Amino acid sequence: MPGGPFLFAVVGLVFLFVLIQVGALQVAFHKLGLDPEAGMTLLFVSLMGSLVNVPLFRMEAEEPAEPPPELFRGLLKHRQPFEGVTTVAVNLGGCLLPLTFSAYLVLHAGAAGFDYLLAVATVSAVSYYASRPVPGIGIGMPIIIAPLAAAMAGILIDPEHGPAIAYVGGTLGVLIGADLLRLKDIRKMGSPVASIGGAGTFDGIFITGIIAVLLA
Question: DSSP string of 124-171?
């Protein structure tokens, strides 16, 4: 999802503050086996990493056939102009760090490998069908759908390891279903940058993981 990483970082800070105030982050960290210090370090590094997009390749693209929705037009005023080429990048905080932490959970949380695969496949399918290309912006999806799917997967597949399964299923499921499987739509969105992992940590992937853990 392209555009406005600073804006998303600010929104992320507000969201983070609210979660801290209600103690939700501590609960999520505890369920994932993290102490508060390690959890806050992970979130801080992820938030800072959300400002960094690592370019992968460029592709020719075309102007979108439809204008962007009114809700998103304000974002377009602050992005770089579209010149017929889209740069596909990977976001450090919204993709690489959640991938690394998911790998850690798979290796150390104790759930069966097949259970993680089943959760990821489920959330990937839900994310793909719930996401939609937004002309000039990127891929959009209601933020609560993936966390609910991930939490349900964790509870139904293995309640004992539900939080870890929900986090891995939620983060990787959104990454695959709403980003990687939607790469084919990039050429038609008229966006100068398409970032795998979103405009930042809090575009949906990391938030999905945290909310899924709280619900599981």
Answer: HHHHHHH-EEETTTEEE--TTHHHHHHHHHHHHH-GGGHHHHHHHHHH
